[in-house]
Amino acid sequence: MNQTTDTIAAIATAPGTGGVGIIRVSGSDAFSIAQRLARKSRFKPRFAHFRSFYNSEQQLIDSGLLLYFPGPNSFTGEDVVEVQAHGGHVVLNMLLSEIIRLGARMARPGEFSERAFLNNKMDLVQAEAIADLIAGGSEQAVLASQRSLQGEFSAEINKLLKSLIETRVWIESAIDFPEEEIDFLADCELRRQLSMLNQSLIAVLKKTQSGVLLNQGISIAIIGAPNVGKSSLLNALTEEQTAIISDIAGTTRDVIKADIIIHGIPVKLVDTAGIRESDDPIEQQGIERARAIQASCDVILLVYDGSRVIEQLPKAKANELVVLNKIDCLHADNQTRQVDVRLSAKTGAGLDQLKQHIVAMVTGGDLAEDTFTARQRHIEQLKLTQHHVHLAEQHLSHNIGELAAEELRLAQQALNAITGEFTSDDLLGEIFSSFCIGK
Ligand SMILES: Nc1nc2c(c(=O)[nH]1)N(C=O)[C@@H](CNc1ccc(C(=O)N[C@@H](CCC(=O)O)C(=O)O)cc1)CN2
Ligand SMILES: Nc1nc2c(ncn2[C@@H]2O[C@H](COP(=O)(O)OP(=O)(O)OP(=O)(O)O)[C@@H](O)[C@H]2O)c(=O)[nH]1
Ligand SMILES: [Mg+2]
């Protein structure tokens, strides 16, 4: 039996206890396993059969529903059987053991989706979107993953591929019939096509970047001196009393993390110990941690206490925002301070502006309504495509058609790797192994 025709089985529902749990079986023996497990010779396709399931010692394990999806019209494209039983993990594992005894083997994580991909039920982008849909950290992220799953992102890639292939055909024929059109390669039309391709690549890359943002979310660190109101800001943003706040400097020592959603972007918010010179070894450790967090987060909020005289404000780096807190009791000195955001963690004034600033910073504008989700892997392939198209343009401007054609071939290969037209087993292994069991 080779890897793609043996029969796999897994519990598809989340580990733990639930009302109902589902076991999925896929492969050429799925039907005969169902016959023996449910003691029935015929199953109406895609129909819920209420049956009793016994183990090898003729003990009743459970009664439940059995569904048979004959290939190729199934999720994986192979014969699929689903056993829907009571959702206790022992019950489900007893049923799974019986199914394994009857000839299936345990599925690897993502193996059902991998088979769906290998049987052309979906492309790689769509298979990845299933995992992203399940992991989706906000409603917007879920809706965006669903758009990728429905093929919207793939359609964008396929449009790029179509115009790339048209350009390749043009160049290849110019090379093959040089005597007919001497200046074919120097043709404006070809230049125009390549420059349009470049524009489309830039547009798709931009959408893909916001897709990755929605998918992966961002981390935001709250950094500043003691007592400036960092923990109060965390509490205001989470709308909960997440962290202890007090007017004693050095209240927060550990790193405190909270998950929030800003304009649909899943955010990991990190509150840190106030940074100052300290002799207290515990506080020192907290400050060290704060510095490490500052170095690793995507966005840094540098918080200042607006109710006091501030010696000097820093020059914010590209991923930093200078936040002036306590504007409800602003010191006269700070009236004209140049900062990115003014707010009061106490009254909530300015919090919306802070959120807008953060979103603008990470998206370079705002998230589009109709975003799809994407992955870093897709961005890398799109950039690689851009690189090869750029080299093709250069070769063309020196009238070296063969080299331009070769670069466009490589560009096409880079695009194809996104939807999985050409992929290595290593890449597939890497992608699918990060899926849940039973997916
Ligand atoms: N019980 C159960 N619920 C589930 C799943 C499942 O496998 N089992 N799914 C698992 O991910 C999702 C639904 N995805 C599915 C996708 C395709 C097919 C399927 O049978 N496709 C056939 C026929 C399509 C049709 O009749 O229109 C095909 O593509 O040929 C089934 C489930 C979510 N809910
Ligand atoms: N008036 C006013 N007081 C605030 C505001 N934000 C925080 N405070 C007060 O400032 C004091 C310090 O707040 P914290 O949130 O504990 O400050 P912190 O920066 O986390 O301090 P450490 O954990 O010690 O580094 C508390 O007494 C808060 O009530 C604000 O917007 N306005
Ligand atoms: Mg604090």
**CA radius of gyration:** 29 Å
Q: Provide a count of the helices.
A: 13
Query: Mean of the pLDDT scores?
Result: 92
- Distance linking N and C termini: 22 Å
Bound heterogens, unique: ligand FFO, guanosine-5'-triphosphate, magnesium ion
Q: Tell how many strands the DSSP assignment holds.
A: 12
Q: In percent, how much strand structure appears in the residues?
A: 15-25%
Poorly predicted residue ranges:
none
In short:
The chain has 13 helices and twelve strands. It is of the alpha/beta class.
In words, what does this structure look like?
The protein is flat. It has a 6-stranded mixed beta sheet. It contains 13 helices and 12 strands. Strand 1 and strand 2 form a beta hairpin. 44% of the residues lie in helices and 17% in strands. By secondary structure, the protein is of the alpha/beta class.
How are the elements arranged and paired?
Elements: E1 8-11, E2 18-26, H1 30-38, E3 49-54, E4 60-69, E5 80-87, H2 89-101, E6 105-106, H3 111-118, H4 124-135, H5 139-149, H6 152-176, H7 188-216, E7 218-224, H8 230-238, E8 256-262, E9 265-271, H9 281-296, E10 299-305, E11 320-325, E12 341-342, H10 351-363, H11 376-397, H12 401-419, H13 425-432
Helix pairs in contact: 4-5, 6-7, 6-12, 7-11, 11-12
The structure holds the ligand Nc1nc2c(c(=O)[nH]1)N(C=O)[C@@H](CNc1ccc(C(=O)N[C@@H](CCC(=O)O)C(=O)O)cc1)CN2, guanosine-5'-triphosphate (GTP) and magnesium ion (MG).
Magnesium ion is lined by residues 230-231, 243, 251-252.
